[in-house]
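HOLO CASE FILE
Compound: acetyl coenzyme *A
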Amino acid sequence: MSEEHGFSKGLAGVVADATSVSQVQGEVGRLIYRGISIEELAEKSTYEECAFFSLYGKMPNQNELNKFTTEMKASRVLPKAVEAVISAAPRSAHPMAILQAAISAIGFEEHPVNLKNEEMNIHSATKIISQLATAVARISRERRGLEPVAPNTDLSHAENFLYMLNGEIPNKDEARMFDVALILHLDHDFNASTFAARVVASTEAKLSLSISAAIGALSGPLHGGANEKVLEMADSIGAPQNAKAWVANALATKAKVMGFGHRVYRTMDPRAKVLRGMLEKLVATKKEKDTYETLRIVHDTMIEELSKTSKDYIWPNVDFWSGALYRLMGIESIDFTPIFAVSRVAGWSSHIIEMWRDNRIYRPAAKYIGPADEKYVDIKNRK
Ligand SMILES: CC(=O)SCCNC(=O)CCNC(=O)[C@H](O)C(C)(C)COP(=O)(O)OP(=O)(O)OC[C@H]1O[C@@H](n2cnc3c(N)ncnc32)[C@H](O)[C@@H]1OP(=O)(O)O
Ligand SMILES: O=C([O-])CC(=O)C(=O)O
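Model generated. Tokens follow.
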């Protein structure tokens, strides 16, 4: 259909704009944020430093980082209207739906967009990055029938998020792993949620409303929602000894295996490697090993079986291991995709700010394939 009509379904391979925020090198399995590999950032950096780097386009010096961190900390408390939106949501609602509403509610008081005032837009973004984490923790606690935990300004972004989620100051090792997971999810060039954010922001809509659109896009199981689905899959497999047969059946019935496949990567997603490394370290310290073992067998069997077919380009993506890591930190699977948003909000914001320097509304063309000259038939004469 798409080839015959001369367009690219799903915009595959279409270059929609230029960016210097990040680059996905799909053939070699490499991801860079403004030129630096994610492996190096995961080893040496922090989420706050990467968020600054992404927003401002330069690595902060110590003074700049202190200022940015102070601003993030000072912004953590949610506006009352956002708290009210969260509290009004039914407990049965998916947290991504609540989060989308909550971030839209930040727009109640957000100043109108001024494309020329980049400094002001970066401050708005910093506030949203900070508040989105508070919103995710609060949504989770309200769902679990727990009192919200007020932010703690002695803690880093990652530590404070885990503290607001669990009500306990996290241990240093787990907090660092979580910080690295946030770094790894921060940006990924023109993925679907970033593209959604860009489309909305290209109309000069407010930052909060553009980010709200991105949250909607991220929620889907083909995108960020896959991390929750991977754990559903592991749970439905039941035990490691069932995993091999489960994969054989999935491949035979052409079922989609969540956490596998990617539009751009033609080899292992580099983030999956780093996440797996951290997960293995954490598993070694825990009694519960079944989820990891089940996923390990799914992973190895998929790669082995696909390598014998023409679909040898299907590899694990970032969503394959992240949930197993979060589960071992005591986090419920329904909160995994909101946690993806806790990180990616810095990428969404950076793309919008970069795009606004030279904005043009996104408005692609459509290939019309309907009839050209139909006549209106009165309702009583219709079959
Ligand atoms: C953060 C992220 O968004 S990472 C991606 C998270 N999403 C997932 O893990 C969900 C599972 N994966 C998928 O659905 C897809 O691989 C996507 C959405 C990520 C990419 O989609 P596309 O680039 O459109 O790939 P497309 O769907 O064309 O796949 C090509 C072929 O590989 C198959 N394929 C792709 N992914 C998988 C998978 N996970 N399991 C089994 N087969 C797969 C497709 O069925 C298709 O086969 P066909 O040619 O016989 O129809
Ligand atoms: O790039 C994509 O299509 C999806 C992805 O991995 C991401 O957004 O992190």
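CASE NOTES: The domain at 34-221+332-356 is CATH 1.10.580.10 (Citrate Synthase; domain 1). The chain has a mean pLDDT of 97.
CLOSED: yes
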